[in-house]
C-alpha cells in the first residue's frame, strides 16, 4: 500500500509499505478514504517533533472497516468510520477519570516511536488499536471531509470552549483563527455565547469568523484590547481562548479577560517566555491549559455536526490526491490552505 512518510525536515515521500495486519483482538483495519493535513503535521515536517525517517504520518482520517478483531463491538466490517487522533487504553487511572488525553498508555497516530509508535493515517490502510474507543460510525448524510474534523480539529475547538466552562450568555474572545480557532468560534456560539470576538491578522480568516457569527478584530491594524474593552463596558470578556499557543497571545488573553474570568489555552505551547502572571493573579483568572480530550467529546461533537450547530465544511480549502502529498505539505506550509484533505 502507498503511505506518506517523513524522510527529513522539509522532505516527505510516498512509499510502498506492507499491508498492516491485526495484532490484537480489539484492533481494526481501515481503508482510509480521506485524511487531513494538520498543524501538528507541520511540526513533524519541519523536524520540530522528531519522527523516524520512513515513518508514516497523519492522524485525521475517515474510511471503511476492512477487518475487525473478535473484541471489536462498536463498529463492524463495512462500516464507514472516523477516527480520533490518538488511542487510549480505557483502563489506566487517568482513563478511568475520563481524562483520555493523558492516558498513561496513550499512542498518537503518525507521531513516531516517542508518541506510541503508531503508523499514520495518510496512507491507503490504517491499523487502528482500541477500535471500540478510537472509532465511530460516520452519521448518515455527513461527508468524509466533515467527519474527519470530529476526531481532531473540531474536537479540539470544542474542548477549548467546554474546558473553560463557557456558559449561555458569556462573551468570548478567540485568539488565532487557524482551523482550531475557527472551530472554537463555532463551538462558543453553539455553547450559547452572545458575543464572540475573533482576533487574527489574516483577512480571509477574519472574514470567515465573521461569517460564522463572530466580531472580527485585526490583531495589528486594530486595537484588540481597546475594542474588547469598549464592547464590554471596560470589563473584558468572560472567556478567552488562545488557539495560538505562544507567550505573546497568552499575555494578550490575560489582558482581555474580565476579573475572575477564564483563559483556555488550547494552542500547543513550546519553549519558554514571559507571561504577566501578576496580572493573571490580580484578576483572579482561571488558567486552563493542555491538549484536547477529543475521545471524551467526539460523540457530542458528531451530534452537534448532525444538528447543524457546528459545520467545519467551509474550513476545507483544498482537496488533493495522496500522491500529491509533497505538494500538499508545501501548500499547507505556505499558510495558503486552512485544511487540505487527501484522498487515495
Ligand atoms: Zn490534527
Ligand atoms: Zn489509559
Distance between the termini: 10 Å
Chain oligomer state: single chain
Strand count, sense and barrel status of the largest sheet are: 7 strands, mixed
Number of strands: 17
Shape assignment: globular
Spans of at least 5 consecutive residues whose pLDDT stays below 50 are none
Which cofactors or ions or other ligands sit in this model? zinc ion
Structural class: alpha/beta
Helix content: 25-40%
Topology pattern, helix = H, strand = E? EEEHEEEHEEHEHHEHEHEHEHEHEHEHE
Number of helices: 12
Task: Summarize model confidence as the mean pLDDT.
Answer: 96
What percentage of the residues does DSSP assign to strands (E)? 25-35%
Rg: 20 Å
Question: How would you characterize this protein structure?
Answer:
With about 350 residues, the protein is α/β, with parallel strands linked by helices. The chain is built from 12 helices and 17 strands. It has helices at about 40-45, 95, 130-135, 145-150, 155-160, 180-190, 205-210, 225-230, 245-255, 275-285, 295-305, 325-335, and strands at about 1-10, 10-15, 30-35, 60-70, 80-85, 85, 105-110, 125-130, 135, 170-175, 195-200, 215-220, 235-240, 255-265, 285-290, 315-320, 340-344. The strands form 4 sheets. Strands 3, 4, 5, 8, 9, 16 and 17 form a 7-stranded mixed sheet that branches. It starts with a strand and ends with a strand. The model has no long low-confidence stretch (mean pLDDT about 95). The structure holds zinc ion (2 copies). One zinc ion binds next to loops.
